[in-house]
Fold:
Amino acid sequence: MYNSHILLVDDEQGLLKMLRKMLNKEGFQQISTAATGNEAIKLVKENKFHIIVLDVMLPDMDGFELCLEIRKYTTVPILFLSARSGDFDKVRGLMIGADDYITKPFAPMEVAARIQAHLRRQRINKETKPALDFRHFRIYKEEGVILLNNEMIHCTAKEFELLVFLCEHPNYIFTGRELYERIWGTYCKSDEKTVVVHISRLRRKLEENPKEPKMIITFRGLGYKFVPPTKNRQS
Structure:
């Protein structure tokens, strides 16, 4: 049985009932639901959730707008669950702060597997370990803190996990598939877009010039590599 508190946001009551029943069978007992964006925001303000599953199309606001609002209060993983299956919508969701995007129709067990994978990664990150120290660039895993030139960098849960993994394996090239399997879990071909989007977001937050990255390097046809910084970003 899991102690994690899950928030499901969807205006389809039948879907909410089905997801709750499926998650209960998987051992999740703390499940809250919301049918509107405003109801979800109220719950997020009043409760500590460990993961949020969010529909894109809601009656009172766009799910993307809701995701941005939720990110003001929490960095827990957000999974979009939507009938909007186009690449543009998936990339947009990931760019604004979501950690995963599952399209409808979906296999209920896939949703459960992805939730379990995100929660498992959260538990791993809470283990007490020393900071990754690259002089002006430091990561404190236990606290979930990233400092660049002593300034805190705000990241989503999956951005943080991806960055930590790359930093723990400096100068090693990983394919998009390898990164997805390490950070998100179960892989399918379209999921490499998730890695591309998260790499892009990290570069915008960490690199002096994201178009010419010095730390997170792309090797065409091979993958991505973290190169430890050798000098102060501002020097």
